[in-house]
Design a protein that fits this description.
Elements (H helix, E strand, L loop, with lengths): L2 H15 L6 H18 L3 H10 L5 H6 L4 H15 L7 H14 L3 H15 L10 H4 L2 E3 L2 E2 L5 H18 L5 H5 L1 H15 L6 H11 L3 H14 L19 H22 L6 H19 L3 H9 L3 H9 L2
Antiparallel strand pairs: 1-2
Helix pairs in contact: 1-3, 1-5, 1-13, 2-3, 2-13, 5-6, 5-7, 5-13, 9-11, 9-14, 9-16, 11-14, 13-14, 14-15
Length: 321
């Protein structure tokens, strides 16, 4: 895939991100990502893609025109579906965008059915069934602080294992594998909250992530962008990626984000959900910095875990309890 084709795929991903509108926080995060990817890839024009999409200087038909290889077209559509389903199953506006994209790319329903079905299943994956004994066992130990039903060491290990898995998922070439990262982060936060006696729903957890500064749509755009520019990304049908890669910037990002979210959730729910927005954001950024330094220590484990994973296993992790 040459530079022009990469830009076309990234443009389509950005168009998908804006298909249903974004709030100011998410829009600024996507701009930061575009600037960051441009600097790291040594391609300043990438930061201009954001402005072109935001100001509607480019449309779906123009972006699709640059893609002639069937596998590139399939990849672009897969990325768009995943971005549209990032925060929930695609809305009516996003579905209209995907129909327009499908027509512009010359794809038929048979070619797109699998990715649409699997992406919707990931976006709509239920939270685990609540353990009825969790809340009574989480007892106050002083002030608002609660004792979890798991030891502190067990919770730390649980968070670390999730961070390693999500870092490993980022090394897989399948585009749909990346879509599993946020559902797994949501389940991580859910289980930690449950351990402290809180029964949570997806709406609360997504708001918790957004408050910390973890955008759902923007996180997918960043993950896909890093994979694409790193030459790792391949379509579910197979063929584009170079296969399993070594720990990359994307893997560092996914490991660190997951680890920091898990540790933040421990503090937040142990304290009875008393942290205000500013403290949540400050604490998350501090934990994120620590997690990025910690990641190097676990790079061999991330690589080893990636060798034992495939897309089917990842999907099962999301669907399972």
């Amino acid at each position: 895939m040459n530079a022009r084709e990469q830009e076309a795929v990234l443009t389509i991903a950005l168009l998908a991100a804006f298909a249903d509108g974004t709030d100011d926080r998410e829009r600024e995060e996507i701009k930061r990502i575009a600037d960051s990817l441009a600097g790291e890839a040594g391609a300043p024009q990438l930061s201009q893609l954001y402005q072109s999409v935001l100001l509607k200087r480019v449309n779906v038909a123009q972006a699709a025109e640059a893609l002639t290889d069937p596998s590139h077209k399939q990849l672009a559509y897969e990325m768009a579906v995943c971005v549209c389903d990032a925060d929930a199953v695609a809305s009516e506006a996003e579905q209209q965008f995907l129909q327009e994209l499908k027509a512009a790319l010359g794809l038929d329903s048979k070619q797109t059915a699998t990715v649409e079905r699997e992406a919707a299943a990931l976006a709509d994956a239920p939270l685990p069934i609540a353990a009825t004994s969790a809340a009574p066992d989480a007892q106050p130990i002083g002030g608002n602080v609660k004792q979890a039903t798991m030891s502190d060491a067990e919770l730390d290990k649980y968070v670390l294992n999730h961070a390693i898995v999500n870092g490993a998922i980022e090394l897989l070439p399948q585009s749909l594998a990346t879509m599993a990262i946020i559902p797994l982060q949501i389940k991580l936060v859910y289980r930690i909250g449950q351990a402290y006696g809180h029964q949570l729903d997806k709406g609360h957890i997504k708001e918790f992530l957004a408050t910390a500064g973890v955008g759902l749509t923007s996180q997918y755009v960043e993950q896909f962008g890093r994979k694409l520019l790193g030459g790792l990304l391949g379509s579910v049908a197979g063929g584009l990626g170079r296969g399993l890669g070594r720990v990359s910037a994307g893997a560092v990002f996914s490991f660190a984000t997951t680890y920091a979210l898990g540790q933040l959730a421990k503090r937040y729910y142990a304290g009875g959900r008393q942290m205000n927005t500013a403290l949540i954001q400050q604490t998350y950024q501090s934990l994120l910095g620590q997690a990025k330094q910690l990641q190097g220590q676990y790079s061999p484990e991330i690589e080893q875990r990636a060798r034992t994973l495939d897309a089917g296993q990842v999907m099962q992790m999301v669907r399972g309890s």
